[in-house]
Write a structure and sequence with these properties.
Helix content is 26%, strand content 25%. The chain contains 3 helices and 6 strands, in the order βαββαβββα. A hairpin with a 5-residue loop joins strand 4 and strand 5. It is globular, with a radius of gyration of 15 Å.
């Protein structure tokens, strides 16, 4: 049987063996996201087609892991030269790329995770729909 494609890890994956601790909903998460959105838009300008707060911290009143998840839509996430150097200069670190899964790129900074997809990628739309349903 053929194994599914694996992401190309640039940093060793962090193994999480224990329970995940949820924090009570924090109204400050929205402000944290707003600062990150401003940081991303300042770094990228027009290549940042859409920047959205996703994940459990984006849902008011919901307990969550206190990590801000951000969806960044660019014209072509496979064209890393168009956005990655600027994001890295702003302090985000590329953790892995998944070319076989909607050309997903995953970056991190302290307390922040950025998921990069191309405009129109089905997974980006699913992330937004999941947030909106919650």
């Amino acid at each position: 049987m053929t194994q599914p494609p694996q992401p190309e890890f640039l940093q060793p994956p962090v193994r999480i063996d224990g329970p995940i601790t949820l924090a009570d909903a924090d109204p400050g998460w929205a402000a944290q996201y707003a600062r990150q959105e401003e940081r991303i838009r300042a770094a990228l300008g027009s290549p940042a087609v859409r920047v959205e707060h996703v994940g459990s911290t984006s849902v008011p009143g919901l307990a969550a892991k206190p990590i801000i998840d951000i969806l960044l839509l660019v014209m072509d996430s496979a064209d890393e030269a168009a956005y990655l150097p600027d994001l890295e200069a702003a302090g985000y670190q590329l953790q892995f790329r998944e070319p076989e899964w909607y050309e997903h790129r995953f970056l991190r900074d302290s307390g922040v995770q950025v998921h990069v997809f191309s405009v129109g990628a089905a997974e980006g739309e699913r992330m937004l729909l999941f947030r909106d349903v919650l």
